Every structure is written in structure tokens, then in C-alpha cells.
Amino acid sequence: MDDPLLLARVQFALTAGSHFVFVALTLGLATLVALTQTRATLSGSVVAERMTRFWGQLYVINYAVGIVTGLVMEFQFGLNWSGMSRVVGEVFGAPLAMETVVAFFVESTFLGLWIFGWDRLNRWVHLALIWVVAATAYFSAYFILVANGFLQRPVGYEMVDGVARLTDVGALLANPTALLAFGHVVFGGLLTAGFFMAAVSGYHLFRRTAEADLFRRSMRTGLVTVVVSVFPVVVFGGVQFQYVQPTKHPSSQEAAAQVAEFQARFGPGDYTPPGLASVGETLMVSAWSLMFFIAFVALVKLPFGRWLERGRVFHVLMMAAVPLPYVAMISGWVFREVGRQPWMVYGVLKTEDALSDVPAGAVAVSFVVFTVVFAVLVAVNLWLLVRYARRGPEAVRLGAPEAPEPDRPVLTPSL
Question: Which residues, in sequence order, are CB contacts of 67 under 8 Å at separation 6+?
Fold first, then answer.
């Protein structure tokens, strides 16, 4: 606990990884809820409307807890990484500011209107609200990945007196490392939501629920989402390798040339990433392979509606598979971020130079506090999701009509 750099890095890894768990489900589930409500609005289907309320409630729970983790996580930039803000803050901070405006003002406002607008707003207006929420969620993810893309492949800047100045906004926003990662995250979120929806539906169908029609349709929706998303997510991931840092694969000739260049520019040092990066890559590919197998099975079985309702072995398989997209996305994040080390901004700013000038004791206290807070938030989110998912549609309070106030006796003066 006496190495502030290691503590700060592990702290950010734990908090950012925990936050990403919320983001993955939020992105995908917002889209599926919006599509389900669109179907309910166009067709007038009572089942589709009940599906919207049920899955919408789970979405709201995940969003509410997840946004708290995002707020807490961003405190670390000023707390532990002031060196980064000092050197590249003008470039790195611009997309983060846009994300704050989109996520904490636009998205939260429209989500609040959607939550409290049931049976109060015109149905088309209410439908438009959830689509605005879904769109702003994707804008938020895009701006975050623009900021991260700059760390991976810095573009659109020049160094003036040791400080990065933004010179080309278009290059920053169109950075291939950001755009390809955005496509990867979009389909990764849909894949996560598809497995989540199929797992919850499988649980209720396995128990021979009375809501068989609702959960059979939900199972179909989840599986179709998995089938549609499982191939694009690997395509966007694979195309990114043409922009990956050469040092992510230390045995290559390109890596040796890159290391030699860094040693000439910055002096002797270890410019190859830790072995954890390759472990993350292996886990990511393995998890995707399992998901692809499940998607293939689902594609074969989807035409058989009664099988979706009666196939208990498949229900168990879907419940067991729900961690797979999380494993794949967290492992991919480890490969992306750990593989950039020892750089905070690749080829520009070392991680050790981005660290705040704070004593090890202060970083240790910060590490303990942040870790405990995030562990509690993840546990609360998991508990709430499991609790309300198990209760089923009958326990949904989202959009439920207010209970009428009991009649009060009329008091009359006695004579």
C-alpha cells in the first residue's frame, strides 16, 4: 500500500470497470424498451405495454445506480490524475464536458419525464421521450469514447510549451479508434441486454409462470437481439486491430520498432504493457465464442415458439450465460486500457507523470473509500435487479396508477 501509482491505477480500474458494467446494460436495455414501447404504441398490444413497464422498471433501476457510479468515478481525475488535466486537459476535457451536458441534463431530464409521464402525456409524446433517452445514452457513450480514443491514439492537437492544445475538432471527433470502439460498445450493449432479457425470461418460463405469453415474447426479443448483435460486435472489435498500439503485441517487429523510438525520445524504460493485457484479450475471445455458440442454437430454435416456452434445459443455459457478455466486455476493456501502459496518453504522457503529487497514505485512503462505495453500489444494483426481476410484472410500479385516497368522514357540528 506504499506505491501511490499502483494504488491509483488499481482504483481507477476497479471503479471504471464497475461503472462499465452498468453502462453496458443501460445502453442495450434502453433500446429494447424503446422498441417494445413502439410496438405497444403502434399495435395497442396490452402484452407489449406490460413488457415495456416491466423491462423499463429494470432499466430505471440500473440507470439510477449506474449514474451515481459515473459521478463518483469522475472525481478521480482531479483527485489522482491532476497531471493529465494539466497537460492534456484542454483536449481530453472537451468531450467529457459534452458527455456531462448530454447525460446529466438532457438524458436525465427526459428520463424523468418518461417515468412520471405514464397516462399523463399523449402516447406519442411519451414514446418520443424514451427514444430521446435512448439516443442521448448513445451520444453520451460516443463522447466518452472520443475522450478515451484520444488517450489511445492522440489526434487533433499540438503541444505548446508542454501543454496539448486542441487544433482540429473534426479529427478528434472522427478518430477511428473512437468510432470503431463506439460501434463495438453499441453492439456489446445490445448483446448484454439480449442475454439479460433472455435469462430473466428463462427464469420465469422455467418456473412455469402464469405470464407465459409475456416472457415467451421477451425471450424471443432477447434471443433475436443476441443473434443480430453477436457478429457485428466482433467485426467492430476486429477492425480496431489495424489501429491498435504495436506494443500491445510485444513479440511483433512493429512493437520492437515502437519501443526503440520511445527509448530514443523518452529515455530508457520498459515500454511494453503488463501480461494482463493478453489475458484480457484471451478471455474476451473465449467469452465471445461461447456467446456465438448460444446464438447459433437460438437461431436454429427461434422458429419453434412452443420450444422457447417448454425447453427447460435451454432456460437453464440462458440463466447460466448471463455473465458472458459482462466477462467479454470487461476483458476487452482490460485489453484496451492495460495494453496502453505505461502511457496515460499513448506516446505523449506517461502514466507516472499524470499522477497527482499526493502522499501514498492519501491515495490509500481514497482507494479504500472508493472501493467500498463501488462495492456497495454494485451489490445494491444486483440485489434490486434480482428482486424486481424475480417478482415479475405483477410487482411493477413504473407507470402504475396512483391509489385513490380513502374517503374521509365528513365531520358535522353537533347540536
Answer: 103, 104, 108
Q: Rounded to an integer, what distance in angstroms lies between the CA atom of residue 145 and that of residue 184? A: 11
24-52 pLDDT, tens digit per residue, is 899 999 999 999 999 999 999 999 999 99
Query: pTM of the predicted model, to two decimals?
Result: 0.89
d(CA 37, CA 206): 26
**What SS3 state is found at 163?**
strand
253 vs 256: CA distance, rounded Å: 5
Please provide residue 165's backbone torsions phi and psi, each rounded to the nearest 5 degrees: -115, 135
pLDDT digits (tens, 9 = 90+) for 288-327: 999 999 988 888 777 666 777 778 888 899 999 999 999 9
Q: Which residues contact 187 (CB under 8 A, 6 or more apart)?
A: 229, 232, 233, 236
Three cell numbers written together for 381: 444494483
**Which amino acid, residue 182?**
F
Give 79: exposed, middle or buried? Use CB within 10 Å, 0-12, 13-18, 19+: middle
List, in order, residues 6 or more apart from 99 with CB less than 8 Å away: 140, 143, 144, 147
**Rounded-to-integer distance, Cα 276 and Cα 258, Å:** 20
Q: Cell digits for 150?
A: 484520444
Report the distance separating Cα 405 and Cα 259, nearest Å.
73
Query: Can you say whether the dihedral through the CA atoms of 229, 234, 235, 240 is positive or negative?
Result: positive
3-state secondary structure 189-234: HHHHHHHHHHHHHHHHHHCCCCCHHHHHHHHHHHHHHHHHHHHHHH
Task: Enumerate residues 6+ apart whose C-beta is below 8 A from 184.
Answer: 233, 236, 237, 240, 332
Q: Where are the domains of the chain?
A: 4-245+270-388
Euclidean distance between CA atoms 385 and 60, whole angstroms: 10
